[in-house]
Write a structure and sequence with these properties.
298 residues, mainly alpha, 68% helix, globular, disordered C terminus
């Protein structure tokens, strides 16, 4: 029994889930705002990537271009949503804001349906990444290795952003004490807009990277956002690094179950979530109050 290939595949899938969950964690951490529409941003990134790449195998450079363009376009859409919709929801009760963002998800899902139709679309793997990596007797997809590498780059970049820049300091300050941060002269609305822009960019590149691995349909928005919320809860609300660990663990459990326990494949992800929360109700890196400012030291 060679368990390495499903583990590598699970880690690759975990990176895709992390890209959407990390944006949710940042948004919740800085703004205490649950953005259900984030799933539609992820799906939009996939469709934009498909529109650029098409149905023929792209080159690696074409894939990089598609991922970058998708991230930028979705970031703009996310910022526009923040300016036009989300700012009217910030002061509402969490249930009301959640319903508002879910309504936006349904609206954006309808836009995707009108633009690309209901039939599943798929983008092939880049020709240079369509093979298996062989290390001795172990084989795993090259594309999974690429996704893991992307995850490492994103984590390193976000760590530098959060702990080595003024913007990162502002995010962590808002997360810790929003009122005091505003009294010190930080514009919460400006930081919120930038956080939403960043979260949209991460969701967009995640969707474009996912395009070769999933069938693109409008309801992809709902399926991914449910799993992303599960990751955020398991990682600890507001914990960026918690989302990373939770996404990798839950996706790996799912991948291994598909390979070796197919009868449990449909419930493995949520069963693992249940067990973790049973042992640690606040999540892996969470605490009773909050976390983004403390996640590195948890």
């Amino acid at each position: 029994m060679n368990i390495v290939p499903p583990i590598v595949a699970g880690l690759g899938d975990g990176v895709l889930l992390f890209l959407i969950a990390s944006g949710l964690s940042l948004i919740f951490g800085a703004m205490r705002f649950l953005n259900f529409a984030h799933g539609a941003f992820f799906a939009a990134g996939g469709y934009i990537g498909y529109s650029i790449i098409g149905s023929s195998a792209p080159s690696f450079a074409m894939l990089c271009a598609a991922v970058g363009v998708a991230g930028l376009i979705v970031a703009v859409v996310s910022l526009a949503s923040e300016q036009a919709v989300f700012r009217r929801l910030y002061r509402l009760a969490p249930v009301d804001s959640l319903l508002g963002t879910y309504a936006l998800l349904l609206l954006l899902e309808g836009v995707l349906l009108l633009r690309w139709g209901p039939n599943p679309l798929s983008t092939p793997y880049p020709g240079s990444l369509a093979h298996l990596v062989k290390i001795g007797s172990i084989e795993f997809p090259q594309y999974s290795a690429l996704l893991i590498a992307v995850g490492l780059v994103v984590v390193a970049s976000m760590t530098l952003l959060l702990y080595r820049t003024r913007f990162g300091l502002q995010i962590r300050a808002l997360a810790e004490d929003r009122l005091m941060t505003q009294l010190l002269g930080v514009s919460a609305s400006a930081v919120s807009a930038k956080v939403m822009l960043l979260g949209g960019f991460l969701a967009g590149i995640g969707g474009a990277l996912a395009a070769p691995t999933v069938a693109l349909t409008p309801d992809l928005a709902v399926s991914f956002i449910i799993q992303a919320f599960a990751v955020v809860v398991v990682g600890g609300l507001g914990s960026f690094y918690g989302s990373l660990i939770a996404a990798l663990v839950l996706s790996t459990v799912q991948s291994v179950s598909v390979s070796y326990f197919p009868e449990a494949a449909g419930i493995a992800f949520y069963a693992a979530m249940f067990l973790i929360l049973l042992l640690r109700p606040q999540g892996l890196f969470g605490r009773r109050g909050f976390d983004i400012a403390e996640s590195a030291s948890a």
